[in-house]
Amino acid sequence: MSTSGTDAYDHHAPNDLPPLVRRALTAARTHRFPYSCRPEQGRLLYALAGVTHGPIGETGTGYGVGLAWLVSGAPPGTPVISVERDPERAATTAGLFADRPEVRILTGDWRRTADHGPYDLLVLDGGGTGKTPGDTPADPASLLAPGGTVVIDDFSPSRDWPPTHEGAVDLPRLHWLTHPALHATEVGLAEDLTTVLGRLTPPAPLAHGVIC
């Protein structure tokens, strides 16, 4: 969720965007919703969705801009689940994707994603990131398929280690970058925007020793 994500498309020619993204962007603008997925993030989601081999999940549908990037990039027929807390937004966005039977938009807390996993790609944008007080981070080991990827966006660049934000250690970002179940890294998308990507690591094989 980007605070000025919808406005970030003002300088992009409509023909440069997938049709589904244009449709969702129109809805976001109509409803004066500023928090859409930025185009830089959207293109990353498009690319990641294109190499998925199983279901895709998303938290925080909004008016479906990020979801549209995912669906546009995914192989045909890939199941995509998105969860939105606001009933009005969920209903409106479900209408936008009514002609895409592989897409389901659920109303409720982000934890509803657990009912439809595991996912090959999971985008945490509206809960489950640990960024806000009371928001428990999602458990990638229970939500991802083996080798699956989790995406946590909207971090500010930091050259420090541990990473900092506004003069303090960025604990949510550190949580994901050092998560024991993930191989994780940070990807810079713009001068003011980075994203954390984590791939679920397989469990270590049991050592076979000789007992004397």
From TrEMBL:
Coiled coil: none annotated. It comes from Streptomyces broussonetiae. This is Class I SAM-dependent methyltransferase. Signal peptide: none annotated. Pfam families: Methyltransf_24. It comes from the Bacteria. One of its GO terms (molecular function) is methyltransferase activity. Its EC number is 2.1.1.-. Keywords: Methyltransferase, Transferase. GO terms for biological process: methylation.
